[in-house]
Amino acid sequence: MGQSVSSAKLTTRRDCYHSQRSYSKSTVLISPMKTEEAEVIDELSDFISDLPDECLACVFQCLTPADRKRCSLVCRRWLRIEGQSRHRLSLNAQSDLHPLIPSIFSRFDAVTKLALKCDRRSVGIGDEALASISERCPNLTRLKLRACRDLTDAGMLAFAKNCRGLKKLSCGSCTFGAKGMNAVLDNCPALEELSVKRLRGIIDGAAAEPIGPGLAAASLKTICLKELYNGQCFGPLIIGARNLRSLKLFRCSGDWDKLFPLIMDQVTSVIEIHMERIQVSDVGLEAISNSLNLEILHLVKTPECTNAGLGAVAEKCKLLRKLHIDGWKANRIGDHGLIAVAKSCSNLQELVLIGVNPTKLSLEMLASNCQNLERLALCGSDTVGDAEICCIALKCIALKKLCIKSCPISDHGMEALAIGCPNLVKVKVKKCRGVTPEGADWLRANRGSLSVNLDMGEHLDVTANDGVVQDNGDGIPPVVAGQIGAPGIASSSTARSTSFKLSGLLGGRSFMACTLRRLASSNGSSRS
After folding, report:
1. pLDDT the model gives residue 457
2. Mean of the per-residue pLDDT values for the chain?
3. In what residue span(s) does the F-box domain sit (predicted)?
């Protein structure tokens, strides 16, 4: 009975639709054959017309950006729905964008994630343009600014007052200073993630204005600072962020040994610390060891850190799951530090050693005590040979992924992997001159399910990115200001957000697939 009622409603709607179309047609002579074809086309178009706007929006979100552009050209309804279903937008933020802002955001009126990127050789948008955008996007939750060098503290203040719900701010190569940053922290109490790179407006030296803590300190969970002349002016913000979970410092000048004791005395919820090419020593590591909830630690090219500092962290931070060390060939971290990790950090799942020289002694301890070790990378080590690989093959039962780069191993080490590491699924060997293609082929033949990747490159450079999976940016393709009138100005939503919306509205893709199959079958039956 439910089906008959719905069928009646659909029939009534179709009749109304047909009556409207027949009324609007001009009076012309049409042959019977053409009339039948027109009715078939009308019936097929009815199925799309019967789809609710929300359902059609979900279809658009499953398409590529190019396909969304094409769909927006079909009719006014599709143009409107495609624009209203855009939540992520990327614009080329040159100065000629300013007069186009009203028309852009009247169409894309549901934007919550915005990226403004400008070429370094071009003149970017100014304070007035950013204020205008913030007035039309009061629900903005994410903002990315790249090379917007004409923005000042006043523009950031105007933006922050209009977008108080901002949760994530990422700015790079901008020229506003501490006042602009403090304006965001004081007016955006929901801010959770802050990423700052090359902020040119921050004054170096003792005259630098401190940044933070502000209202946002209570909600901040992630702080990432990159290439700052005076990154330590963010000290008040970091110290005041009591709920901070992740702290990442890349190439920020200053003596961080003085700041880490103050940070760790107030912030106890940190689970991830990433330090790359900053001035920190065992003093800083001693302070970090007081963060008992620490799970992820990256020490990349910090030559003043030694076995003693690593041992202090390992002794207290027993929840450590991921450890990345780039020793920069300084030989300050070796067997003693790794043995301390093996003794205390039994939950270790991922270990990356670059420019570190472990021996069979420490590797055997790690393999025996860290039974959950699943990912291991050994790069640029002079002491990792066939004996060490045999030890890993024999002891690392849970190991799933192994990466070896620029190490003195040979085909004999590869043979050991054929009978060891029962859970191993992937092996990557790069720039190890003793390993031949025949040895890799032999390993593939003896372990058919194992993926073996052999790279015979001749260059011996080793970087911190080898052997680990790095997070990419959101990768939003910029739109040229001259193309503003085009329907596809915005980038598509991510697959993650798309799946969330689909599951919430339709309960999965099966409903949509069934509808499309029904349309296809109707088309086929009508033509036959």
Report:
1. 75
2. 82
3. 45-81
- pLDDT, residue 484, reads 38
DSSP helix/strand/coil, 405 = strand
Among 435, 292, 297, 311, smallest CA distance to 362 is for: 311
156: left (phi over 0), alpha (psi -120 to 50) or beta: alpha
> Rounded to whole angstroms, how far apart are CA atoms 70 and 398?
49
Cβ(185)–Cβ(216) under 8 Å?
yes
- What are the Cα distances from residue 457, in Å, to 381, 402, 450? 16, 18, 22
User: Following DSSP, what letter does each residue of 1-56 receive, concatenated?
Assistant: -HHHHHHHHHHHHHHHHHHHHHHHS------HHHHHHHHHHHHHHHHHHHS-HHHH
229 exposed, middle or buried (CB, 10 Å; 0-12, 13-18, 19+)?
Answer: middle
Residue 179: which of 195, 155, 143 has the closest Cα? 155
Q: How far is CA 133 from the centre of its chain?
A: 25
For the entire predicted model, the pTM comes to 0.76
d(CA 248, CA 491): 28
Measured in residues, the chain has a length of 528
Which bin fits 107, alpha (ψ -120 to 50), beta or left (φ > 0)? Answer: alpha
Among candidate residues 273, 271, 283, 290, the one with its CA nearest the CA of residue 308: 283
* Low-confidence spans in the chain with pLDDT less than 70: 1-46, 204-207, 458-528
Answer for the pair 370, 345: CB distance below 8 angstroms, yes or no.
Answer: yes
Supply the DSSP symbol for 204.
P
Residue type (1 letter), 366: L
pLDDT of residue 39: 56
Q: What is the pLDDT of residue 498?
A: 36
Alpha carbons 324 and 468: distance in angstroms, whole number = 9
**How confident is the model at residue 45, as a pLDDT?**
55
CB count in 10 Å sphere of residue 33: 8
The answer to whether 355 touches 379, Cβ cutoff 8 Å, is yes
Report d(CA 217, CA 178) in Å as an integer.
15
- Where is 196: in which H helix or E strand? strand 193-197
